[in-house]
Amino acid sequence: MFWNDVYKGTPPWDLDRPQPAFQALIQSGEIKPGRALDIGCGRGENAIMLAMNGCDATGIDLAENAISDAKTKAIERHVKLNFVVGNVLQMDRLFTEGEFDVVIDSGLFHVMMDEERPVFAQQVHRILKNGGKYFMLCFSDKEPGEYELPRRVSKAEIESTFSPLFNIIYIKDVAFDSLLNPSSRKAYLLSATRS
Ligand SMILES: C[S@@+](CC[C@H](N)C(=O)[O-])C[C@H]1O[C@@H](n2cnc3c(N)ncnc32)[C@H](O)[C@@H]1O
Questions:
Q1: What span, in angstroms and rounded, lies between the C-alpha atoms of 29 and 97?
Q2: Are 121 and 161 in contact (CB under 8 A)?
Q3: Which of 56, 127, 138, 145 is 20 to 30 Å from 34 by CA-CA measure?
Q4: Distance 32 CA to ligand 1 centre (A)
Q5: From the CB of 117, is ligand 1 less than 6 Å away?
Q6: Which long-range contacts (CB under 8 A, 24 or more apart) does 153-159 make?
Q7: Where is pLDDT greater, at 83 or 182?
Q8: CA atoms of 48 and 53, how far apart (whole Å)
């Protein structure tokens, strides 16, 4: 499987530290202690940060290799949280409706195909409490390099995917750190609440 193979090495997003955009959300108090889910959590740095800041945190990812490494990391750092292997497009099989106060997404939405986007939005909506928060970090269309993956996402695409089910609070210009040169990519941060 593509995603499992990626984690046999170190992919460019695998910083071994949390993304600064999510650290800032904790510092600003936008993410507060509560039930939190990191979707497409990879090797778990952002989920571990949530747990270290008072959240009852879970990370989910399709890649067994990544989840196995995330579990090892959490044990080594003495941080308690859950990691599960699973498909975010089928979260109704794993989580109950309204289970989470906050869902974070660091680079997952931007790998979804067009036809997956409405299902993705419905799945995130379903697992959030009424008024629950969704924070999503994706490459923006301001980042140069038309054909390089992942796809660049426009504000209009974010709005059309999420506004049917969420109240959009803001879509901000932020940086997406990576191990590549240049190390920081142009990104959007979406803050939305379940409507
Ligand atoms: C760009 S990586 C970001 C990983 C992590 N959030 C980080 O910041 O290091 C996207 C992640 O989404 C996962 N992924 C892709 N499609 C998925 C799906 N349908 N369900 C769950 N995880 C998925 C991949 O395995 C990969 O770990």
A1: 25
A2: yes
A3: 138
A4: 23
A5: no
A6: 153/109, 153/110, 153/188, 155/188, 158/188, 158/190
A7: 83
A8: 9
Residue type for position 14: D
Both tokens assigned to 32: 């507060």
What are the start-end ranges of the H helices in the chain? 2-6, 20-27, 45-52, 64-76, 117-127, 155-162
Per-residue pLDDT at 183:
76
pLDDT bracket for residue 147 (50, 70, 90): low
In the chain, where are the structural domains located?
Answer: 2-194
Give pLDDT tens digits for 107-137: 999 999 999 999 999 999 999 999 999 999 9
Please tell me the distance from the alpha carbon of residue 174 to that of residue 21, in angstroms, as a whole number: 7
Averaged confidence pLDDT in the chain? 95
Q: Exposure of 31 by Cβ count < 10 A (0-12 exposed, 13-18 middle, 19+ buried)?
A: buried
CB of 50 shorter than 6 A to ligand 1: no
CATH of domain 2-194: 3.40.50.150
Atom of ligand 1 nearest to the CA of 89: 19
Nearest-angstrom CA–CA distance, 162 and 117: 9
Sheet with 100-106: list strands edge to edge. 82-85, 56-61, 35-39, 100-106, 128-139, 184-194, 166-177
Q: Write the pLDDT tens digit of every residue in 22-31.
A: 999 999 999 9
